[in-house]
Amino acid sequence: NSFCTLLAMQLDNSDGDDLLLGDGSEQRVPRDLVEPAAVYRLAFHPNAPILCTGLMNGCVNVHEWRRNETRAIASLPTHRGAVCSMEFTRSGSHLATVSSDRHIKVLDCASQAHVIDIRRKNSPHKFPLSILSVCTSTELAVGDDDGMVSFWDMRMQKPVTTFLEHADQVTGMIYFEGNHQLVTSSTDTTVGCFDMRMRKVAGFSEKRKDELNCITFLPATNSVIAGTDAGMLPIWKYGAWKRPYDVHSKHPRECEALLTYNDNMFFSGAYDGTVRLIQHHPVRRVLTNFGSSRRNFNTVSGISVSHDRTLLAAATTGSTVFFYDIEFLGDESELDKLRDRAERKHMETIRKASAEDRVPDSDSD
Predict the structure, then answer these.
(1) How confident is the model at residue 340 (pLDDT cuts 50, 70, 90)?
(2) H/E stretch holding 324
(3) CA-closest candidate to residue 260, choices 223, 292, 234, 289
(4) What is the separation of C-alpha 46 from the centre of its chain, rounded to a whole number of angstroms?
(5) Dist. CA 77–CA 35, nearest whole Å
(6) Which of 44, 175, 216, 284 has fewest C-beta within 10 Å?
(7) Is residue 361 part of a domain?
(8) Reading across the β-sheet that carries 191-195, which strands appear in turn?
(9) Is residue 177 within 8 Å of 222, Cβ to Cβ?
(10) Into how many domains does the chain fold?
(11) CATH code, domain carrying 298
């Protein structure tokens, strides 16, 4: 089938003229993609020009994107409830999904067959599933609307451990494979850190005033950042979970989507339909906006970046997916144009220090 064929393609064997951005005389990104139902989640394939959308009607739609267009590949009835979260495995061979119907499913991308379907009767979760994280090739973390967090061995298709620390919907998950820890956010206003190897709570934050809708991680400063309805983005230092050490202020309200771009910048979505690229260090501020001219006033509910880091897709609380050209973000000289003189000088110093750190010591006799 066509989905299987696309996944088997070797991108480096494509025609040299087959460029996403063309010669500049055409539209640089695909046109808006209108789905038959509200789009709950987005996921770009990690190795191929494929975008999957998880819909309110339980379907996963598969699209190929090329140059300035998208092409529908498949519409896969997956769940009886809304597709609340989905994520590709690192290799891209499988797509895991969870739903309000409480099923956990794993799709084989080549055959389009569901190779795993964990039914709700075989799950400890008694409430709709809200979030998942593909931790390793054989392990999966799942959260639900009542705050339960479970960690699954997908070889046995059984939960290894469960946690009941959160008192409301689990909204975000980040797995740190190096120390086997899972960091979560919840609408109960807390952040949790769970040690999956030791099967214990490694840390938990104090309650706050604002519900936490999502989280992301910036490696440069070991910062975990959360999105809130009020717009303020609290920042925790990894390992110091009691309370945030700072906050990104002046962010628009209803931040329901965050996505790390690199170790110092992240994307955020808000109620106004705009995706913002935010710099964390040395000066915390918005570098640029995507979508502010689209007159789209639906809240951004999902953000994903393509495998080649040239295309940004944003889903809103409606049924439309918007695309934005982000190829220029890979060019530091282009980013410097968005910074003031002091910031540019600071970033030049950081880049110089990083380059020196990467130079191996010379051998001496």
Answers:
(1) confident
(2) strand 320-325
(3) 223
(4) 12
(5) 14
(6) 284
(7) no
(8) 170-176, 181-186, 191-195, 200-204
(9) no
(10) 1
(11) 2.130.10.10
